[in-house]
Amino acid sequence: MSNETNAEWSAEDEQALLDTIDSWIEKSVAPIAREYDLEDKYPHELVEEMKDLGLFGATISQKYGGLGLPASIYAKIVIRISAVWMAPTGIFNSHLIMASAIERAGTEEQKQHYLPKMATGELRGGIGLTEPNAGTDLQAIRTVAKLEGDHYVVNGAKTWITNSLNGDMILLLVKTDPNAQPRYKGMSMLIAEKGDGFIISKKMKKSGYRSIDTCELVFENYKVPANRLLGGVEGQGFKQTLGGLELGRINVAARGCGIAEGALRLSVRYAQERKTFGVPIAEHQAIQLKLGEMASKVEASKLLIESAAKAFDKGERCDMEAGMAKYFATETGAYCAQEGMRIFGGYSYSTEYEIERFHRDALLMCIGEGTNEMQKIIIAKQLVARNAI
Asked: How many distinct structural domains can be found in the chain?
């Protein structure tokens, strides 16, 4: 989706916004990160502050009340927050993927009704794609929606759904024609607000990415008004889903990069504080080799993210660029978190040191928004297609 408001963000406006985000992170995010993560406690206070900062409308166009941020600035915000605590970025990321899909593919009535309320955070949403037997292979979903009069009746189940407990609605991927061939032609998206038959069956316990509501959902004769079919035409759900993955992958790349940068910061500080053999460990060549590799990978990740974000902002096809950024930056997050654990040594296993949280959070980024194995396949296929002989 090309963002028509990009030109309105001058370098001065961008820096002012990033300075505001930095101040908020220092004042509100950093002091509670460890406590909330360890207790798996939802940060209601942060959500209210994120509303005030406009983060729930970050990439929503200004015509609908959002900030209209280009992906390049949005990614910088995500990196900054994730360098301190990654989990809060998931609260507005899933929400913004839903908003992006509505803005890109929704009817004008749907846009006018939902986007202004989503921009303020009055309505908060997420994405309902994954099922117990369908992750990467989305065409294998079994949740079915049957049109009966002026509404759809939905039956099925979803899992790993972010924002489903504390949010208000999700963009729900369903089969409106289970017998369609090829399978993707029978898939549609519904704007599903909570109601009778929308059942949150379990909040999932996770090793990382805590303090954010990730749940299993069940739909039992759940009714959705027909006018909430995204775009008003059945059979477009698979295409609509793929259209939003670039922004999601840029976001996850930024999260991975933020984790990497945060782990690097912690490691550089600790390497100067910790002494062995009478000198700070930062003076040992073995530690210097680690820090040099970590720093280089962080900067390379930022450049890949910037490349993907700029292509996205221009409305260009960027599945290869977003795939490269997501793959490399998230692997960098995992690498830097692991190297940080080694630099911290035995203390890295104590919850008194935040490096262990970065390590727990990092591995999810290599899996979410399409596994990194899948990203490499996407990169290779696009590379061949763009250089066909």
From this structure: 3
Say whether both 103 and 182 belong to one domain: no
Give the Cα separation of 258 and 150 in Å (integer): 46
- Residue 217 contacts residue 164 (beta carbons within 8 Å): yes
Q: Same domain, yes or no, for 83 and 159?
A: no
Average pLDDT over every residue of 367-373: 91
DSSP code string of 120-132: HTSS---EE--BT
> Any idea what the CATH number is for the domain that residue 287 is in?
1.20.140.10
In whole numbers, what is the pLDDT of the chain averaged over residues? 95
pTM above 0.90, yes or no: yes
Distance of alpha carbon 233 from alpha carbon 237, whole angstroms = 9
For residues 336 and 379, membership in a common domain is answered with: yes
Residue 1 in any domain: the answer is no
Predicted confidence band at 1 (pLDDT cuts at 50, 70, 90)?
very low
220 is catalytic: no
Q: Which domain holds residue 195?
A: 127-237
Pair 114, 138 in one domain: no
Same domain as 249, residue 382: yes
Length of the chain, in residues: 389
Tokens 């998230």 map to which residue? 330
Is residue 126 within 8 Å of 101, Cβ to Cβ?
A: no
Question: Which residues are paired to 128 by β-bridges?
Answer: 172
Tokens 């166009």 belong to which residue?
Answer: 61
Catalytic residue among 339, 354, 356, 369: 369
Residues 6+ away with beta carbon under 8 Å from 316: none
Any domain includes 207: yes
CA–CA distance, 168 with 117 (Å, rounded to integer)? 11
Reported as a single tens digit per residue, the pLDDT across 58-116 is: 999 999 999 999 999 999 999 999 999 999 999 999 999 999 999 999 999 999 999 99
Token readout for 256 is: 């991975």
